[in-house]
Amino acid sequence: MNNCRIGVLTGGGDCAGLNPALKWVTKAALDSRFQATRTVTCGVVGIRDGWKGLIEVEPGTPEEANWLQPLDESVVRTWDRFGGTNLGTSRTNPFDPKKDRSKKVMENIEKLGIDVLIVIGGDDTLGVAHRLAQMGVKVVGVPKTIDNDLSATDYSLGFETAVDVITEEIDRLRTTAGSHKRIFVVETMGRYTGWLSLAGGESSGAYIIIVPECPFSIAKINSLLLDGKKRGLRYEIVVVAEGAKPEGGQEIVQRGGTDAFGHKALGGVGQFLADQIAEGTGLDTRSVTLSHLQRGGAPCAYDRRMGRYFGIAAVDMVVRGEFGRMVSYRNGRITSVDLKEAIGKQHRVDIENDYDVERYNGKRTILGYR
Ligand code: F6P
User: Which residue among 156, 165, 189 is best mutated to probe the pocket of ligand 1, counting the most ligand atoms within 8 A of its Cβ?
Assistant: First the structure.
């Protein structure tokens, strides 16, 4: 029987669903009933702060413990109830062109005796995992991102909890919006894709939903709002994704520069829209940016279950020796895909099929009947 030391890390933006995945990686790996039938005996160690942990750790020194957390069933017993990631995360890129530290990562994996890495992350983190796999590291990926825009899986951890947050916050805004007869513009996350604003807007019954895939016309938004007023609507909710841009314009950037993976920090389109609406319609308008609230809080039931299934599937892949691949949810089933297919391509809202351009909202026919 071979021993297999699994290292597990979470990278990129945190979200709900990471802790359930960590719990079930650990439980599945250490499951005593399976130990009898498997050809490998697993142990699990958590690596703190994503790729940063594998760069900073100094194996064999007392500081090693700052970056590693041995995981067993008693440690992870309650983790699925909690949001964020108990291992910590970072947006560190070992292949950062300004300072490539991938060699250090490779050396540390070797020195720590890590046989397999389970990497829980979005496009950037999984992109690093893919490059390490090409360099010979045994890697299994698990998808997470509240943007839900990875192209090789129908679900990424964190999305449904974030949609719940948007829905709850909009419910809350409705009472104050109604009391004051105001327009509220709610800005959601969603850098390049509009899945969060679309699902959040649909779940909460928003009057207008704006997605990055369909550049918006201010004149049209204002005319829809005035039309609603004419029909007697007391207040209206407009949901806009942070990556949305006006026709012929650019997305709105919160601050200059880019992160280690080259992404701009977006934010501000909600306030921009609110100003344009107030100016163009004379209606009393406010904006609310939900920002990191969407990533916080306890995982919803769906993220607990999906974290569980994804974590277990990742260990199944380790046991079967399926490396260089990512757990994927496709057509209602958990499966796996090559990491190469999982990165670099975004799954975007299909404006023709998923969106109503006339109403700036979700579809009003599902089966295509008019
Ligand atoms: O991870 C994706 C995301 O949630 C985006 O929707 C958002 O633009 C970004 O993270 C914000 O990241 P940060 O945590 O660096 O502010």
Answer: 189
**pTM (2 decimals)?**
0.97
Could you tell me the sign of the dihedral formed by the alpha carbons of 310, 84, 95, 349, in that order?
A: positive
Q: How far apart are the CA of 14 and the centre of ligand 1, in A?
A: 9
C-beta of residue 154 within 8 angstroms of C-beta of residue 173:
no
CATH fold match for the domains 2-157+299-342 and 160-296: yes
**Domain 2-157+299-342, what fold?**
Rossmann fold (3.40.50)
The CATH number fitting domain 160-296, selected from 1.10.560.10, 2.10.109.10, 3.40.50.460, 3.30.930.10: 3.40.50.460
Tokens 């829809």 — which residue? 224
Q: Is the CB of 145 under 6 A from ligand 1?
A: yes
Asked if residues 110 and 7 have their Cβ atoms less than 8 Å apart, the reply is no
Are the CB atoms for 244 and 216 separated by under 8 Å? yes
**Predicted pLDDT of residue 123:** 97
pLDDT per residue over 204-216, tens digit each?
999 999 999 999 9
The DSSP secondary-structure symbol of 300 reads P
In the chain the first and final C-alpha atoms are separated, in Å, by 62
pLDDT at residue 325 above 90?
yes
Q: Cβ–Cβ contacts within 10 Å for residue 334, how many?
A: 16
In the prediction, which pLDDT does 1 show? 57
Host H or E run for residue 64: helix 64-67
Residue 145 CA to residue 155 CA, distance in Å, equals 9
pLDDT tens digits for range 83-94:
999 999 999 999
CA 323, CA 117: separation in Å to the nearest integer?
9
Testing ligand 1's pocket by substitution, the residue of 14, 52, 124, 147 carrying the most ligand atoms inside 8 A of its CB is 147
For residue 281, pLDDT beyond 90: yes
Q: Say whether 340 sits in a helix, a strand or coil.
A: helix
**Domain spans in the chain, listed from the N-terminal domain onward:** 2-157+299-342, 160-296
As a whole number, the mean pLDDT across the chain is 96
Please list the alpha-helical segments (H only) found in 139-235: 159-180, 195-204, 218-230
